[in-house]
Amino acid sequence: MELPPHDGDKLSVVDMHTGGEPLRIILSGYPDVKGDSVLAKRRYVREQLDHLRRVLMFEPRGHYDMYGALIVDSEKPEADLGVLFMHNEGYSTMCGHAVIALGRFAVDYKLVKEPQSPETQVNIHCPCGLVRAYVEYSHGKTGGVRFLSVPAFAFATDVMIKVEGYGDVTVDISYGGAFYAFVDAQRFGLDVTKSKTRDLVDVATAVTSAVKSQVRLSHPVSDDLAFLYGTILTDGKDNYSTDPTANICVFAEAQVDRSPTGSGVTARVALQFHKGLIQLNQTRTFKSGATGSLFTGKAVEETTCGDFKAVVVEVAGRAFYTGVSCFVQEAEDNLTQGFLLK
Ligand SMILES: O=C(O)[C@H]1NCC[C@@H]1O
């Protein structure tokens, strides 16, 4: 397709969604990302290339809840690719919905050598560590994806915090490649599948800011991982059941995940395991309060992360392609750097 008049470089992307959550995979147009590790590259894009995140995530090319993935080289020999995640506020350390989409993408776009049936393994080096994805592959077609995440652990349970406008609230904090606070939405008189998204976002945002100011997080591997990514409101159905349990994740700058949140499912399974509510290899289904889309999750192995007892969690879901785009900019466009409407 012929490009319209433009100035400077163009940015090409493939768009996908996983359970309704967008993933904009950057194909070309980024300058070289410097740094001798994926975590160092994450710091580099945050400091040197953030204007490109704004161009691709913000309006007029994206929107408030857009999500992106930039493929980078990994320093790990076993990795097929490295990836940096981006959203409306910055750069995440883990993203399960993106791993599910990237698994398919890596096979379809030949980032792995010989695809195998019935599953092709794709090792994706995320900022939190190496995540192993297994992509269904049959007769040349990719399908569902399951992944084994980095060690996940309950960081603290029954933590009392003071939430502005809501008083004392008890939350659990768990890590699934990123830290989340978990709280039952009923504590606020809300239902994660029925309440207005705006009401859920307001509560979750208040919880996030309270935890950020009142709880000091730490991670055994790197200080870069020690921050609260968001709050997940749940339906409280943490006891094992074959019925789905619903949650909604509000992360970054009040951004709403349309999917059940892969890293959130990882953290929630670790929490349930820690509390003795789920056993190894018991599969639970997790439903997005936003769209009703489903992931499954189970703890498959006990391990450790520093001094924390941890589990390896497997999450499974499906991603779909929605299109490809080539974005351009014009020098005279004073909104070209992007803006957000709240
Ligand atoms: O699935 C996930 O883990 C992600 N989705 C958006 C927020 C999280 O990074």
TrEMBL record:
Database matches in Gene3D superfamilies: Diaminopimelate Epimerase, Chain A, domain 1
Entry EC number(s): 4.2.1.77
Keywords from the UniProt entry: Lyase
Protein's UniProt keywords contain Lyase: yes
GO molecular function: trans-L-3-hydroxyproline dehydratase activity
Catalyzed reactions per annotation: trans-3-hydroxy-L-proline = 1-pyrroline-2-carboxylate + H2O
Protein's name according to its UniProt entry: trans-L-3-hydroxyproline dehydratase
Species whose genome carries this gene: Takifugu rubripes (Japanese pufferfish)
